[in-house]
């Protein structure tokens, strides 16, 4: 081979090594992103379960209040619980981002 061909071959080898290194970095980044996604999905699942439990408690509390509370107390309880539900919904929205 000529000197020019040897030089081109050396440049090609360097570029192939660089490309392989870049591929390795991208594979590692994909693994990290998959892990982060899995953690986020697990956190979202747990939050949804908590929301479901809170909604059940909310319904139970409303039922109990209907039986034993006066009108003003019922309004206050509904407002407080609605505020809590909205706060949980905001948390879920933040997790979805």
Describe this structure in words.
With 97 residues, the protein is an all-alpha fold. The chain has two helices and no strands. The model has no long low-confidence stretch (mean pLDDT 89).
Short description:
By secondary structure, the chain is an all-alpha fold.
Determine Rg (CA atoms, Å). 29 Å
Strand percentage lies at under 5%
SS class: mainly alpha
The largest sheet, given as strand count, sense and whether it forms a barrel, is: none
Mean pLDDT: 89
- SS summary, helix count: 2
Task: Give the helices and strands as they follow along the chain.
Answer: HH
Low-pLDDT residue intervals, each spanning 5 or more residues: none
Question: What would the principal axes of the Cα set say about the shape?
Answer: rod-shaped
Distance between the termini: 57 Å
By DSSP, the count of extended strands is 0
Approximately how much helix is present in the residues?
Answer: over 70%
Overview features:
97 residues, mainly alpha, 2 helices
Topology:
Blueprint: H1 3-68, H2 71-96
Helix pairs in contact: 1-2
């Amino acid at each position: 081979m000529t000197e020019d061909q040897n030089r081109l071959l050396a440049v090609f080898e360097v570029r192939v090594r660089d490309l392989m290194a870049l591929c390795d970095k991208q594979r590692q980044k994909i693994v990290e992103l998959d892990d982060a996604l899995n953690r986020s999905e697990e956190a979202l699942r747990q939050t949804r379960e908590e929301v479901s439990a809170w909604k059940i408690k909310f319904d139970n509390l409303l039922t109990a209040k209907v039986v034993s509370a006066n009108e003003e107390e019922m309004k206050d309880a509904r407002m407080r619980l609605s505020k809590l539900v909205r706060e949980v919904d905001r948390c879920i929205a933040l997790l979805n981002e």
